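Dear colleague,

Thank you for sharing your sequence with our group. We've completed the structure prediction you requested, and as agreed, I am returning the results in plain text so they can be pasted directly into your records. Please verify that the sequence below matches your submission; if there's any discrepancy, let me know and we will rerun it promptly.
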Amino acid sequence: MFDENNWVASHEVVNDNELHDNNENNSDVQDETADQRDANCATDILHRGLLFLGFGVGRQARSKLFIVVFSSKSLTCIVVFQTTKIDWFRSGFGAHPNTVQTIIAMLEEHTKKQICSSDALLAFNWLKCDDTEKILAGRYSLSEKTVRYKSRGLAELIQGLYKHMIELTFDEEVYALTIDGVNFPTFEFSKDPSAKYYDHKSHSSGVKYELGVAIHSPRIVWSNGPFPASVHDITVFRGGVVGQNLSEWDQDALYNQLPHGVKCVGDSGYGGEPNKILVKKREHSPEFQRFIERALSRHESVNKRIKDFKIMRNRFRYGKSTEGRMNLHKTVFQAILVIIQVEFENGQPPFDV
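Please find the predicted structure tokens below.
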């Protein structure tokens, strides 16, 4: 288990020449001193991240030359190239450089320790691309053991921000949040083989989380899990099954967290709790049906953002024991929720209902 108290930020200097495209001349690499570049500024994070992805200094610089040559269309070119570089970065790290910078700053405030941007990029790269430790070891010039320690360690640190970022608060609206169960595939739990892990969506082994998203503001406000994938969404919501005494239901379940007069919006699978969850019905007005549909569509867009991180979309292979795999999956899931919430707050919110 990663020990936050023993965390020591890596200060290994990334050698631009080593990361430089083999077809580019080393003379293109410009020497930069510590005074010229703040190691954790968004510009440096973008530059350094693109180097790790194989976009050498020369290739990054050529986009600037293109803008100068076509100065008559400079405004258009700037937008195109900045978007292209951000897209390159997002393809490898799953977030905007400003988001990475913000999370580094939050971690440093939370842990009172310095976080190296290269270590943070390694963790984001692992979450986004789900590359093997061998590939990451070559990309970051580290041993496989160090890659494992740093990537999982940073993920645990980001997870440590979860309780500060994901809070169950309610807007002054009757229909406050959307709720849905989201499944993720995993390798089979060989030490605990059971049909309870069967995921009917992927027809394989998996786990389930309950996710709540505020309807009237760009906030993830709730998550619960992981549970075996076969557990029904409404069972997770209730924290128990019909027939049990209500006192036997999980008191931490969302069913027991909703104040009187506040409802969730859910799909038809939640039809058994009309006092707690609104589902679309034929008797609703067309306008109200569109509200429900748009709210649920917005929620699905958040689910997609989670699965854009390949470590969640791919079959989760980490953890030796059942408990170890479930705990590590939860660490990764909650870390990704933190990243997405910071994205919401840095100019990438979900669409309005």
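Summary note from our side: Confidence is low (pLDDT under 50) at residues 4-38, 65-74, 76-81.

Kind regards,
the structure core
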